[in-house]
Structure prediction request, 179 residues.
Amino acid sequence: MVMNHTIENPVGIDAKIQMVQNVIFDKIGWDNIEVFGKVFKNPSKGKKGDTVEAYIGKNEYADVFTNDKKNANIFFIEDSSHSTNEGILYKNEVLVVFMVNLKKLYPEIAHRADMEAEQDAMKAVKLSRILRNPEIEKDVTAIFSKLNIESIKLSNMQPQHVFALKGEVAYYLNSKCNN
Prediction:
């Protein structure tokens, strides 16, 4: 099952994120994936630190970390600081996080297919033309800084791979999603 969790009538950075989200969902070519928009840092239940969850409506949040039933989970983390020079155009560093099962996505490849996953992800993100100068981040601790990652410590061992594409998103507060 492929699922793209979108929001109705997004504005501002949410609109830009949803544009990238929709392109990834339509173009990445992976099956049995779950794609979320922007996630929120929320207190971990019964653990130290915070975790990331996606708001799915009706005061409910969903855990976005690796799901054994899915081939991949994809979601967005925005930086807490949104800069502007003139109060009109804002800029923010955004991470597009990919938590994938390489064996499920690339069963025909005998070696660890991390580069293939990163290549497919970069192609899809670049098609959106929204994330400026995307870089690849592979350090799980850097991706999830200040978050409780107890449940995903080993998520970069075969067959799991966690990485993020990091880049700048420029937006207007009244930007709307046009796709």
The helical segments are 13-27, 102-105, 114-128, 140-143.
